[in-house]
Amino acid sequence: MNKPTLKLHDVNSYYGQLQVLMGVSLEVEDGLMTGLIGPNGAGKSTLLKTIIGRVKSSGSIHFRGERIDGLPTRSIVELGVIYVPEGRRVFPDMTVVDNLNLGAMSSAARTGREQNLKLAYEIFPILNQRRKQLAGTLSGGELQLLAIARGLMGSPQLLLIDEPSLGLSPTAVTLVFETLREINEKGKTILIVEQNVPRLLKLASYSYVLENGRITNASTTNLLEKDEGFVRSYLGI
Questions:
Q1: Cβ(231)–Cβ(237) below 8 Å
Q2: Helix or strand or coil: residue 12?
Q3: Which of 188, 168, 226, 204 is nearest to 37 (CA)?
Q4: Would you say residue 168 has pLDDT above 90?
Q5: Which residues contact 57 (CB under 8 A, 6 or more apart)?
Q6: How far apart are alpha carbons 139 and 115 in whole angstroms?
Q7: DSSP characters for 104-167?
Q8: Cα 47 from Cα 129, distance rounded (Å)
Q9: How far is CA 113 from CA 41, 105, 225, in A?
């Protein structure tokens, strides 16, 4: 069993007085892709934002053995935790390469910017072809690839990816998931929120189910696919 890159214990998250996460505990193992599954409004995006320090929380969050809850987001990013939010949030009036370079925010990322850019173009050859185009001229699938590639420019030790297939065509979804597989196979640790459960289960080694702010199920992909309640709720079988 690999060592956990990320470990949450009894995490509660709040927007003002509203509690969204309740006693969440989970681990993300080094080098693996871990899925986070659940209905809309369950708190999945809130969990990612909590890890990156954008949401008020209690409980403990450890990254590579170091406690990070309570740290400012910038300090968490410096440690190598990179968040790719849903919605393909890029700067449409900037070129592809300028958007990529914006991802090199930490000191490690700035030092390794050329190496990371080479890796991004290796994994995303379409972005190399489009590097001088304005991001706003890209297709939806290409925009999602750009958002993920910009995350790679941050020299991530852990990638937090939120709903990468949302609103994409079936062809673009296939491309995005194939790319995520390649990134993971290159040794990047990933925690991913995704509504397309069948696709996610083909990629993730282990998944957690989050419902109403609580973890209700957690298992390897093989065991989840044999869980009748899970299959009924999330695979429609």
A1: yes
A2: strand
A3: 204
A4: no
A5: 11, 12, 13, 14, 21, 50, 69
A6: 26
A7: --SHHHHHTHHHHHHHHHHH-HHHHHTTTSBGGGS-HHHHHHHHHHHHHTT--SEEEEE-TTTT
A8: 35
A9: 36, 10, 40
Determine the Cα–Cα distance for residues 208 and 206; give it in Å rounded to an integer. Answer: 7
At 210, is the secondary structure helix, strand, or coil? strand
Give the tokens for residue 124: 């995303």
The answer to whether residues 214 and 42 touch, using CB atoms and an 8 Å cutoff, is no
The domain ranges of the chain are 4-235
Which residue carries 């290796």 as its tokens? 122
pLDDT tens sequence across 87-143: 778 999 999 999 999 999 888 889 989 999 999 999 999 999 999 999 999 998 899
* Number of residues written out for the chain: 237
**Phi and psi at residue 28, to the nearest 5°:** -120, 115
pTM for the full predicted model: 0.93
User: How many CB atoms lie under 10 A from the CB of residue 73?
Assistant: 13
DSSP string for residues in 71-118 = S-HHHHHHTTEEEE-TT----TTSBHHHHHHHT--SHHHHHTHHHHHH
Q: Which of 89, 90, 71 is nearest to 81 (CA)?
A: 71
In whole angstroms, what is the distance from residue 127 CA to residue 149 CA? 9
What CATH code is assigned to 4-235? 3.40.50.300
